[in-house]
Design goal:
The protein has about 120 residues and is of the alpha/beta class. It has a single domain, classed as DsrEFH-like (Hypothetical Protein Ychn, Chain: A, 3-Layer(aba) Sandwich). It has a five-stranded parallel beta sheet. It is globular, with a radius of gyration of 13 Å.
């Protein structure tokens, strides 16, 4: 299996979990896995330009840097469409590498048994 998924439901409401999720995502991308971070519920806020700029957990690189490195390594950030709409976020402010998707896209990615960890 050459795919790996991280499901993230936290943003500034648990910056530690959000940060660790992207640390793991970077490790997976560096292992040449096709890696997706699926943002749902509160985590969809991370897809907005500027939102993660001030998130920096002690002992880790800043979240904005981790997210940027992940995308540069070929990682994909998928944003739950209903969660995005519920929070009335701005499609014009999506960060690079982020795509708004429906749940069917995630199911399709996972259907062959790709591992998925959740934070």
């Amino acid at each position: 299996m050459n795919k790996f998924c991280i499901s993230l439901t936290y943003a500034k409401n648990d910056a530690d979990k959000a940060t660790v999720a992207f640390v793991v995502a970077n490790a997976a991308a560096a292992s040449e896995k096709e890696t997706v971070v699926f943002l749902s519920t509160e985590a969809v806020r991370l897809c907005q330009e500027g939102y993660a700029d001030d998130v920096h957990e002690p002992g880790f690189a800043p979240l904005k840097e981790l997210m940027g490195n992940f995308v540069k390594a070929g990682g994909k950030i998928w944003v739950c469409s209903p969660c995005f709409k519920r929070r009335e976020l701005d499609e014009g402010k999506l960060i690079g590498g982020a795509t708004i998707v429906g749940g069917a896209k995630l199911v399709e990615f996972l259907q062959d048994g790709a591992p998925c960890v959740s934070y």
